[in-house]
Write a structure and sequence with these properties.
The chain is of the alpha+beta class. It has a single domain, classed as Alpha-Beta Plaits. Helices cover 27% and strands 43% of the residues. Helix 1 packs antiparallel against helix 2. The chain is globular.
């Protein structure tokens, strides 16, 4: 089942390769969406795909030794038709 989530990541998530790691893992898991740094030091992401694969993406990010996610806020949002890739914004 195709789902889309809007996620805020808090913790040590900037300056540690978070966006690059998210993009690589999302592509490997055939997920679409985007990720970007926020001015307040957090990271924002929208990710779309199979729910199991989205959970696997979160596990990949949590297992990275440089990234330390202290908190997440996750909202399920409507899917977007026609989206074909995962990209880094900003």
């Amino acid at each position: 089942m195709l789902i889309r989530k809007h996620v805020y990541f808090y913790g040590r998530v900037q300056g540690v390769g978070f966006r690059w790691r998210a993009m690589q893992a999302a592509k490997d898991l055939h997920l679409t969406g985007w990720v970007r740094n926020m001015y307040n030091g957090n990271v924002e992401m929208e990710v779309q795909g199979n729910g199991v694969m989205i959970e696997r993406l979160f596990q990949e990010l949590n297992s990275d030794r440089f990234i330390r996610i202290e908190k997440t806020e996750i909202l399920q949002i409507p899917t977007l038709e026609g989206e074909s890739e995962f990209s880094v914004r900003g």
